[in-house]
Design a protein that fits this description.
This protein has about 230 residues and is mainly alpha-helical. Helix content is about 60%, strand content about 10%. It contains ten helices and three strands, in the order ααααααββαβααα. It has a three-stranded antiparallel sheet with strand order 2-1-3. Helix 2 packs antiparallel against helix 4. The longest helix has about 30 residues. The radius of gyration is 20 Å and the shape is globular. It starts with a helix and ends with a helix.
């Protein structure tokens, strides 16, 4: 009798979780905070349209489809399928997370050198803004294949660091670092304009860096850090 009750309880809990997943609002493509040609000549209109409308939209579509499949597998108690879907969840979920950040940390009025608390933290942890810039640029250029270079915040020790992630692996779930500024080095982010010369793209992207947005991310990361 107890076994039946326990089994029934697990079934009802599974149905409840699956129902919650199915009824949650689907992920959507966020609008760009500027026009498609606003970052030109650093990143041209054709790249921005392709990157946003096609590539980011594909991550969103595939993420929604993966979550639907996860809900179905969970409802059936199909652990093998649930495990098998984790790579798709990481890739498409990461692609969505990464690009939502990416659009906001770029700005047509960007560039220059960050000031305030962020600027002071960069100088403290890297020696100067230029040294941080050189380190992140080198790390991003050196990524084998596709991926992201990141300036991240280590909440446990309260410092900034440079990290890279392969493919669309999201920084925080992968490394524990809070993403502040990222450089997308997938070829679709630059090939139409810079061909296969990744260093030229990485050099130029600093001219559209939105340091106000990055500084706000830094402030939020500090606020969420352990006391």
């Amino acid at each position: 009798m107890f076994s039946r009750i326990a089994s029934s309880g697990r079934f009802l809990a599974s149905r409840a979780i699956s129902s919650a997943v199915r009824t949650q609002q689907a992920h959507t493509l966020p609008p760009l905070p500027y026009a498609y040609d606003a970052l030109a000549p650093i990143i041209n209109k054709d790249i921005m349209e392709l990157h946003h409308k096609k590539h980011h939209q594909t991550y969103v579509n595939n993420l929604n489809a993966t979550e639907e499949k996860l809900a179905e597998a969970h409802e059936k108690g199909d652990v093998i399928s649930m495990i098998g879907l984790q790579s798709a969840l990481k890739f498409n979920g990461g692609g969505h997370i990464n690009h939502c950040i990416f659009w906001e940390i770029l700005s047509p009025g960007g560039g220059g050198v960050p000031a305030g608390d962020l600027g002071e933290a960069i100088t403290r942890d890297f020696g100067s803004f230029d040294k941080m810039k050189d380190k992140l640029s080198a790390a991003s250029i050196g990524i084998q294949g596709s991926g992201w270079g990141w300036l991240g915040y280590q909440k446990n020790i309260g410092s900034l660091t440079i990290a890279t992630c392969a493919n669309q692996d999201p920084l925080e779930p992968t490394t524990g670092l809070v993403p502040l500024f990222g450089i997308d080095v997938w070829e679709h982010a630059y090939y139409l304009q810079y061909k296969n010369v990744r260093p030229d793209y990485v050099k130029q992207i600093w001219n559209v860096a939105n340091w106000e947005n990055v500084a706000e991310r830094y402030r939020k990361a500090i606020a969420q850090s352990p006391a």
